[in-house]
């Protein structure tokens, strides 16, 4: 089973998207659909067809977000986490070749590889949970086992240092 966890910032982003879609974007598109429908023949009305499809997409996303924000559990930082890897941690790792990578363990809804965010359900995150600085971890990847050394663990972004 996949973890239904999210950081507070991640939950706020989903909630903000939901409110925007429901209170601002959907009413704009509904108005466009009504205006296009008022022009008569809907079968050959590209504006009507396009905005109607867009409305269905918005409604689908709204349904997903409503369900999602209710079922997700927000995980806030706790001082007891300090020194160990848990959900929400930023981790710096190094391999034997000297390659250094930085990751943050987040929920599925926050995944952003450009920011170095990995999901709690990923093999790397599972190997890291509970580890401390100077620990070694072995991660099973499709190309075989990879060994990493834990350099740093912190609960604020590395760029905020």
Q: Please report which band the strand proportion falls in: under 5%, 5-15%, 15-25%, 25-35%, 35-45% or over 45%.
A: 15-25%
Distance between the termini: 35 Å
Overall pLDDT, averaged? 91
What is the helix/strand order? EHHEEEEHEE
Number of discrete helical segments: 3
Keywords: DNA-binding, Elongation factor, Protein biosynthesis, Transcription, Transcription regulation
GO molecular function: DNA binding; RNA polymerase binding; translation elongation factor activity
Protein name: Transcription elongation factor GreB
Family: Belongs to the GreA/GreB family. GreB subfamily.
Describe what you observe in this structure.
The chain has 161 residues and is of the alpha/beta class. The chain has two domains: 5-75, Helix Hairpins; 79-154, Chitinase A, domain 3, CATH 3.10.50.30. The protein has helices spanning 8-37, 46-71, 123-128; strands at residues 5-7, 73-75, 90-94, 100-106, 117-119, 136-141, 144-154. It has a five-stranded mixed sheet with strand order 5-4-3-7-6. A two-stranded parallel sheet has the order 1-2. β3 (90-94) and β4 form a beta hairpin. α1 packs antiparallel against α2. The longest helix has 30 residues, at 8-37. The chain is elongated, with a radius of gyration of 22 Å.
């Amino acid at each position: 089973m996949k973890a239904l966890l999210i950081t507070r910032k991640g939950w706020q982003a989903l909630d903000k998207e939901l409110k925007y879609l429901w209170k601002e974007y959907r009413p704009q598109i509904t108005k466009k659909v009504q205006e296009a429908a008022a022009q008569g023949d809907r079968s050959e009305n590209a504006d009507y067809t396009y905005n109607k499809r867009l409305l269905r997409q918005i409604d689908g996303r709204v349904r997903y977000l409503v369900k999602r924000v209710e079922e997700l559990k927000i995980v806030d930082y706790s001082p007891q986490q300090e020194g160990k890897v848990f959900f929400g941690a930023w981790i710096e790792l190094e391999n034997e070749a000297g390659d250094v990578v930085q990751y943050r363990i987040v929920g599925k809804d926050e995944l952003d590889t450009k920011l170095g965010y990995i999901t709690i359900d990923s093999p790397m995150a599972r190997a890291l949970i509970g580890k401390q600085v100077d620990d070694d971890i072995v991660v099973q990847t499709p190309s075989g086992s990879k060994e990493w050394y834990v350099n740093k663990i912190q609960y604020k972004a590395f760029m905020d240092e």
